[in-house]
Protein 1
Amino acid sequence: TYADDDRRHLYFSAADYIVLGRKGSTPYSASGQMATAIGYRLPVFAQISEMHLNHGGAATLYRNEEDLIQLLKGADRTKLKQMSLQCEHVAQQRDWSKIAKQHEELYVQV
């Protein structure tokens, strides 16, 4: 479901984790849901798709509903905290100021 930009923070701030599935052939990352969740430091459970993303370990992938149910049953507070810390690491690596600096350094070399 789409969340307006001005209300998105309400949903993501209230969540303990995010579950991303797929409908049809649209990958779950097509509109940035995974990146947004990682930005909010939310653990992600994502269905495996043909387009395998480099998520830096911030997402736990599942194949089908049975896999998802088992993963969610095992997702206690300790596991979710570990996943959230991994999201923090990935978010820091993908921070726009850091990426901009890397691009700037590359341009200087060219």
Protein 2
Amino acid sequence: GFKDTTLVFDMFFRKNPDNMGYFFIGYRTQWALKSPDTWLYSHVRYGRWMVGLGLVTLILTVVGVFLLPADKVERTLLAMYVTALIIPYVPIERGLRRCYDRYGRRIDER
């Protein structure tokens, strides 16, 4: 299902990287699209977050399927998946604002 599709897309994009992403897929915020550097910064960090959150959601999915009542499994897992997709945005956007100016140029860290 969802995890299989994610794995296929991951393998495709690792072998076919694009310097500014694809139209429908990717981390697409105003800050991430300012320059190729901000795009790379945001996608690398989002990828790292998704690997970690993917492992957590995989474990919680297996546990939830066996422990939750049948009528609550779908809604609970859907809420967990959506939350896992949204969580990384806050730290990544903060990092972009800390490391890049409003034009997408790297700020010297002294």
